[in-house]
Specification:
Blueprint (H helix, E strand, L loop, with lengths): L5 E2 L3 E4 L9 H28 L6 H18 L2 H10 L3 E3 H34 L4 H4 L2 H27 L3 E2 L3 E2 L6 H7 L5 H34 L4 H35 L2 H25 L2 H22 L1
Parallel strand pairs: 2-5
Antiparallel strand pairs: 1-4, 2-3
Helix pairs in contact: 1-2, 1-3, 1-10, 1-11, 2-4, 2-10, 4-6, 4-8, 4-9, 6-8, 9-10
Length: 317
């Protein structure tokens, strides 16, 4: 690449999923529906946990944080894509792209850490039930969330700062619906060996670490459940983990599938389609997974919706 063709560009083009005009209304309607469901569902979880005193426990404290992060996670990518479809433009400025990537990495990291913290919470609840409230005290819960935020932000800043040193060819087209780190590195004209090395090392450390913690916690939980004599006791212990296990499986299978498939095929468009699973679908399904399998959440949601209905009837009267 000649030096004259390398410069600090001011904008990128997000190509999205398809360039066919007849598919744009379908894509817009589909993603708008999923985004509204995600925001509304997670807001209901937040409202249920904050309004019901029975849900002021460590498990639901972490769940409320996960719902907040899921709203932010989806909001970093989908609104921009919807705006581009509506205005029939593909442009995203260099500054907006870096900002979007920074927040995306932050909230993805927070999702990862919160799932690990929630696994530890279930480990303490099942394996050390008598010491649960002593171990999982409010100070420790707040500290775990704070450390997760600080680590995620620092990781995001370190990854984003690498991109600031890269040079891109003019008229850079991103075959994706948002500015993703690995896609940005692939499109750079400058040497990216060190960037790839740091990116994959950080991914193994900050994604693999929480995954190891989750696997360790659940291995201890399985051994503890096997020691319970009654079938009813085993079912009750496992049911408290079922929702979290479903979310963990969905998140990790989707995210690992994206990065493994992109590494194997180098197809950016297929990677963009696969990315929808962990960037949009997983945050949308989380409220349903937790509410459908949790009596306390369902009771709180029914009470909230019942109060709202009563208020509406009173105002009409």
């Amino acid at each position: 690449m000649e030096p004259g063709n390398i410069t600090r560009i001011s904008k990128f083009l997000l190509l999205g999923f398809s360039e066919r005009p007849e598919l744009q209304p379908l894509i817009f309607g589909l993603f708008l529906s999923m985004y509204l469901i995600t925001v509304f569902g997670n807001l209901l979880i937040l409202l249920a946990v904050s309004s019901d005193s029975h849900l002021h426990t460590p498990m639901y404290f972490f769940l409320a944080n996960l719902s907040f992060v899921d709203i932010c996670f989806t909001s970093t990518t989908v609104p921009k894509m919807l705006w581009n479809i509506q205005t029939q433009t593909k442009v995203i400025t260099y500054e907006d792209c870096i900002t979007q990537m920074n927040f995306f990495i932050t909230f993805a990291g927070m999702d990862d850490f919160l799932l690990s913290v929630m696994a530890y919470d279930r480990f303490v609840a099942i394996c050390h039930p008598l010491q649960y409230m002593v171990i999982m005290n409010p100070r420790l819960c707040g500290l775990l969330v704070l450390v997760s935020w600080v680590t995620s932000v620092l990781h995001s800043l370190s990854q984003t700062s690498m991109v600031l040193w890269l040079f891109f060819c003019t008229e850079v087209e991103i075959p994706h619906f948002f500015c993703e780190l690995n896609q940005m590195i692939l499109l750079a004209c400058s040497d990216t060996f060190l960037d790839n090395l740091v990116m994959y090392f950080a991914a193994m450390l900050l994604a693999g670490g929480p995954l190891v913690g989750i696997l360790y916690s659940y291995s201890k939980i399985v051994f503890s459940i096997r020691g319970i004599s009654s079938a009813q006791g085993k079912y009750k212990a496992f049911s408290t983990c079922a929702s979290h296990l479903s979310v963990v499986s969905l998140f990790y299978c989707a995210s690992l599938g994206v990065y493994l498939s992109s590494a194997a095929t180098q197809s950016s468009r297929s990677s963009a389609t696969a990315s929808v699973m962990y960037t949009v679908v997983t945050p949308m399904l989380n409220p349903f997974i937790y509410s459908l399998r949790n009596r306390d959440i369902k009771r709180a949601l029914k009470r909230i919706l019942g109060i709202q209905c009563y208020k509406n009837q009173s105002s009409k009267g």
